[in-house]
Write a structure and sequence with these properties.
The protein has about 400 residues and is α+β, with helices and mostly antiparallel strands. Helices cover about 55% and strands about 15% of the residues. The protein contains 13 helices and 7 strands. It has helices at about 5-35, 45-50, 55-60, 70-90, 100-105, 105-115, 230-240, 245-280, 285-315, 320-345, 345-350, 355-370, 375-385, and strands at about 125-130, 145-150, 150-165, 170-175, 185-190, 200-205, 215-225. Strands 2-3-7-6 form a 4-stranded antiparallel beta sheet, with no helix packed on it. The protein has a 3-stranded mixed beta sheet with strand order 1-4-5, covered by helices on one side. Strand 2 and strand 3 form a beta hairpin. The chain is globular. The two termini are about 35 Å apart. It binds flavin-adenine dinucleotide.
Amino acid sequence: MRFELDQAAREHVEMLREFGRERFRPLGIERDRAGSPTPPDHPFFVEVLRSGLTRAAAQPEGGAPALGAAVMRVVSSQELAYWDRGVSSSLPGPGLGGGPVMSMGTQEQKERLLGRFRNMTEPRWAAFAMTEPGAGSDVARIQSRAVKDGDEWVLNGAKLYSANADRADWIVVFATVDPDLGRAGHRAFIVERGMPGLSDPRPEKKMGIKAYASASFTMNDLRVPAENLLGGEAHYEQRARGAGFKGAMQTFNATRPAIAANAVGMARACLDEAMAFARDAGRLGERQLDRLERMRRRTRAAWLMCLKAAWLADCGEPNMVEASMSKATAAEVAMEAASLGMELLGAVGMQGEHLIEKLYRDVKAMDIVEGTGQIQRIVMARHLVGYPRDA
Ligand SMILES: Cc1cc2nc3c(=O)[nH]c(=O)nc-3n(C[C@H](O)[C@H](O)[C@H](O)COP(=O)(O)OP(=O)(O)OC[C@H]3O[C@@H](n4cnc5c(N)ncnc54)[C@H](O)[C@@H]3O)c2cc1C
């Protein structure tokens, strides 16, 4: 494995860095103070599309031969979250909805749903909705019901925290044909904006990463045409046990290293801000140095884990353990870095004006999203002793 970025990759990161410094950081602070997500008609999104940043962030060109798409993705994710994780999650594109469509969708669905994101001239979003009021970590407990009725499916239920669902063209919604079947009963549907029975997705109140919307919505006798069953009937018949669930989990194994990289970027931001504060305030004594050194050491170790998990993905090797390891470690490191940064600030941190205080509120989400720290540790522990994963 090689660690250096080639010229094209370095230029790519430089482009993200400049855009991040100029636009992400100020917008993230603005939305944090406003306490609401960036509105979909905000000029920032058009500017982002014109800059080519979304395309570049999704499919970075170049990279040394050893650098594949997954490694470039963690590199981009780290850099963008350094400037503002909330803003980076608000970027137009299929978002978390893209993974299940790619891994489970038919050719026709991939073209129909993802084609519109290829050369966006106006901002568009898609979303992913698994979490429910009674089912978060234990996704097997989802209660949203799917009942077949002729050529349609009828959906009923409620979803929470779906990223960008308030502005999404379509949402991948997981529902069950029979809650007693657990994961085997799951089906994934494409719910399109404006379908009768879909309530207006409403942004949740959040303590951090406020620049993007995490929205909740309900489905009341929402009728979805059969062609919007992701993968079609054949997909579920072929894999009688848990195909829908596996589709969601594949998405997470691919995205966990990128979430971990977000956390590394945020830890790095805490370190830089803490260093700057300590220098300006003349507080670079041994006690502070010890904290700063610990932040740097732990942040670098977490970064190596992200790279390893992504590199395995690029090699087409299983990366479940490494993906969980990077996610659990990086979120912990980011929370610790923010906490150490707050300690260093002392009373200044409590005034609510310093970037570290914002990061302190932002980083907690990295421990929760796409599998909490506890869940990652359970996955790794079960693997360590050879227990089946889903028992
Ligand atoms: C900012 C944000 C964005 C999100 N985006 C999305 C999205 O786009 N789409 C989507 O579908 N969902 C999304 N979610 C939801 C997220 O996936 C869930 O919050 C997460 O899965 C945890 O579920 P929960 O909040 O219900 O907590 P719970 O599952 O109720 O967990 C509560 C606590 O108990 C612990 N716990 C749970 N089970 C166990 C166990 N077996 N052993 C030990 N400890 C356990 C957890 O680690 C946690 O600390 C988002 C959440 C947030 C905060």
